[in-house]
Design a protein that fits this description.
By secondary structure, the protein is of the alpha+beta class. It has 24 helices and 20 strands. It has four domains: 1-48 and 252-382, no CATH class; 60-249, no CATH class; 384-450 and 626-764, no CATH class; 456-623, no CATH class. The strands form two sheets. A six-stranded mixed barrel has the order 2-3-8-5-7-6. The protein has a six-stranded mixed β-barrel with strand order 12-13-18-15-17-16. β12 and β13 form a beta hairpin.
Length: 764
């Protein structure tokens, strides 16, 4: 019984004596596991809101937008229902585009006619308010993300303008969610459901509306084959097609990017945590070897000494794993689901928890096994191994550095394995911090140079009720306007006619829109185009290839002459001059992309244009993609703090080992005439050199790969390579100085205390 009480008491006493370092280890491991849990939750498909919405709404897997006709709808439904794999059909529903005016802002909106009784397939899920009621013909139900973006609540009145220019006042009856399309404004136009008679009143002309049909499939993976059959049945009437895969990807928003960043930091942090635990336990073995020898002389076996260290430090690591697991679930529940929602799957939770626990316990077990081999000689002193001067110490002697620095350079690498663990333990967190700074620099570059991501224009202006020529004159008359480019966005069917891509006709071949071309060149002739990486991957095309797309039933053949960085539609965008479109699709322009003079305020220009047009123009400010990625900055700061804790844990261990090695040397150094300040410099130099080496190595490694990592993510996400930026030299220099300075300040306190201690105390 005594042999079990002794280790327990020793562990309790050791934890009380070093509670600060123990707490540091727990917090560091907890932070890493929290990052891993959050990353896995963001990346796991079950957390995508699309899945839950699709189940609740009994959603359709394929949505087809076709030209509206008076006759033939019954035959269309019968033909589509007869396609192999189709288990249900939603619609056809009549849909018409309108513009919503709200507090001086204009937003594109599609009114969809649905009956008062929600359909069985693809029925919206009511979130607030009530569903459509024939007793309230002006009531509409808005899609939730659109309502939130426009600040509309049940009961709010709003004005819509039809293509004919007629204005109608409607009111919000309810707010609902759907799995039919992604969230606004990433997915436009917004969506609203209204009664058929209300839509007929707002837009009576059949030629200005579309017919929308949803197909529910028995096998979702057969969507491509079903779409091909549907296009054959509807012939040239098909305008746009979207599938469940596109909506699912759109609803992920930026979760995947954030998840990959957290996963990268968490995985590297787990390696750093393992090194920190191994370094801490190894440091205890060196500094407390006399305690272990005494315990063994009292009858403890090798296994008991080893187990004692594993229980103490492995227990601290497991406590950190458990805390991180709880914190990770809490963070994801609050940030993703507002306090509730689907948790991480059991297999993913078990994998992260079990893997982290195994890594931590193994990191503690290896140096603990060495402690079990300590001989039972309690009186034996612990001295650093002897040997020749290191090359660094010889260099210090050669350049005639002060004695304190020479002695510190000699002591830095006396113990090779602890020195290596300390260096790597500092280098890995520093490398990840540098990668975080590179991500920050990439976001800053987006904000400072939006033209590099296809956003040279600060405003998009639609003529509204004004003639195109009058709208163009009003825009050019503003003194802050530099250039304007007429444009039209059309939906284009890719060659197999199973998916819809965005075809953006903007500028002309003689005066193209100022895209920043990452590869190739800008279009300079009719029939030439530039494309995003996502479109090139989807069509398996490369620069120089010709692609065939279908626009409004007409075949358009374009030659891709360049690749641009395209943040919209996952890069599935084809851009070309407006003169490449057929006259019926190009005239009049749908919008004007407005490039402002440097230093102009986009909001003020938008207000002036609307005032000059008496609110006839529809002016929208272009949203930079970096603005919606602002949360990444918060994540980088939080992860930097966790990584700094890991570096601090390694630093405290290195300081403890250095002080223990110098316990017998302090008397000799003072007898040689070194002042307490010089003794302090000796102790700080020994640890500071390891920190400096780790910081420099980590900074160099992180700076060398960060641009490649960002470009790799850009390529795989469809945005395209060419967006990664390395932190500036000033930023890297400041990061190195802050890291080294903080490390020296941390080691200075125990070093000064040891240097000022009386000689007998130091010897003890």
């Amino acid at each position: 019984m005594t042999t079990y009480r002794v280790p327990a008491r020793w562990i309790a006493a050791d934890l009380r004596a070093r509670w600060g370092q123990s707490l540091l280890a727990v917090l560091a491991v907890a932070g890493i596991v929290t990052a891993l849990i959050t990353a896995a939750t963001l990346l796991e498909e079950g957390t995508n809101p699309w899945r839950g919405l699709f189940t609740q709404t009994d959603g359709a897997h394929v949505w087809i937008h076709a030209q509206d006709t008076v006759a033939g709808k019954g035959e269309d439904v019968a033909a589509l229902r007869g396609l192999q794999g189709v288990t249900g059909v939603a619609g056809p529903y009549r849909s018409a585009p309108v513009t919503l005016a709200n507090e001086g802002r204009n937003a594109p909106l599609a009114l969809r006619a649905l009956p008062a009784k929600p359909p069985a397939i693809a029925h919206p899920v009511l979130h607030e308010g009530r569903w459509l009621d024939p007793a309230d013909p002006d009531g509409v139900v808005l899609e939730r993300s659109f309502a939130e973006a426009e600040g509309l609540r049940p009961g709010s009145p709003f004005t819509v303008t039809a293509l004919s220019g007629q204005r109608h006042i409607l009111a919000v009856a309810g707010i609902a969610e759907t799995a039919e399309q992604g969230f606004y404004p990433e997915w436009t136009p917004g969506l609203a459901w209204t009664l058929p008679e209300t839509l007929d009143r707002v837009e009576p002309a059949i030629g200005r509306s579309q017919s929308v049909i949803g197909l529910r499939l028995g096998d979702p993976d057969a969507a491509r084959m079903v779409v091909q059959g549907a296009v054959t049945q509807l012939d040239e009437r098909v305008l746009r097609i979207s599938t469940w895969r596109e909506v699912r990807e759109a609803m992920m928003l930026d979760n995947r990017l954030l998840g990959l960043l957290l996963g990268l930091f968490g995985t590297a942090g787990l390696v750093a945590a393992a090194l920190a635990v191994a370094n801490v336990v190894g440091g205890r073995v060196l500094t407390q070897s006399r305690d272990f020898a005494t315990l063994k002389s009292l009858g403890l076996t090798r296994g008991q000494v080893t187990g004692m260290l594993v229980v103490e430090h492995g227990g601290l690591g497991l406590l950190g794993v458990g805390s991180g697991l709880a914190a990770g679930h809490l963070v994801t529940a609050l940030s993703l689901y507002g306090g509730g929602g689907p948790p991480l799957s059991p297999m993913s939770t078990l994998g992260i928890t079990g893997g982290s626990a195994v890594v931590v316990v193994l990191a503690a077990a290896l140096p603990a096994w060495r402690a079990g081999r300590t001989p039972p000689l309690p009186a034996s002193p612990v001295a650093p191994p002897s040997g020749r001067l290191s090359r660094l110490a010889r260099l210090a002697l050669l350049v005639r550095l002060p004695p304190a620095l020479v002695l510190g350079a000699r002591d830095a690498f006396t113990r090779r394995l602890p020195a290596l663990l300390t260096t790597f333990g500092v280098a890995i967190p520093m490398a990840m911090i540098t990668i975080g700074l590179g991500c920050w620099a990439s976001l800053d570059n987006f904000l400072r140079h939006p033209e590099q991501v296809g956003q040279a224009a600060a405003l998009v202006v639609k003529p509204g009720r004004l003639p195109a020529s009058s709208a163009e004159q009003l825009i050019k008359a503003d003194p802050a306007v530099s250039r304007i480019y007429p444009g039209t966005d059309v939906d284009a069917l890719e060659p197999e006619q199973t998916r819809t891509v965005l075809a953006r006709a903007v500028g002309t071949s003689a005066e193209p829109y100022p895209f920043e071309v990452a590869e190739g060149r800008i279009y300079a002739d009719s029939g030439e185009a530039v494309a995003g990486q996502g479109l090139l991957d989807m069509m398996d095309a490369k620069i120089g290839d010709r692609v065939r797309v279908t626009v409004s039933g007409s075949v358009l053949i374009l030659r891709i002459v360049g690749r641009v960085v395209e943040p919209e539609q996952d890069g599935k965008v084809l851009s070309f001059g407006i003169d490449s479109l057929a006259p019926k699709d190009a005239v009049p322009p749908e919008f004007y992309s407005v490039v402002l003079k440097p230093g102009s305020d986009a909001t003020q220009v938008a207000d002036r244009l609307q005032a000059a047009s008496r609110l006839e123009l529809e002016v929208r400010r272009v949203v930079n993609p970096a603005e919606r990625l602002a949360v990444i900055r918060v994540v980088i700061v939080a992860l930097t703090a966790v990584l700094a804790l890991l570096g601090l844990a390694n630093l405290l261990t290195a300081s403890a080992v250095g002080l223990r090695d110098h316990a017998l040397d302090l008397a000799v150094l003072k007898a040689m005439g070194l002042t307490p300040r010089q003794v302090t410099a000796t102790l700080v130099t020994g640890t500071g050199l390891l920190v400096l080496l780790g910081v420099l190595a980590g900074t160099a490694a992180g700076a060398s790969v960060v641009a490649w990592l960002v470009d790799l993510q850009g390529h795989t996400s469809g945005v395209g390579a060419g967006i990664g930026r390395t932190p500036s030299m000033l930023t890297l220099t400041l990061a190195v100085l802050v890291a080294v300075g903080a490390a020296l300040l941390v080691t200075l306190i125990p070093a000064r205390r040891a240097a000022r201690a009386l000689i007998p105390v130091a010897v003890r």
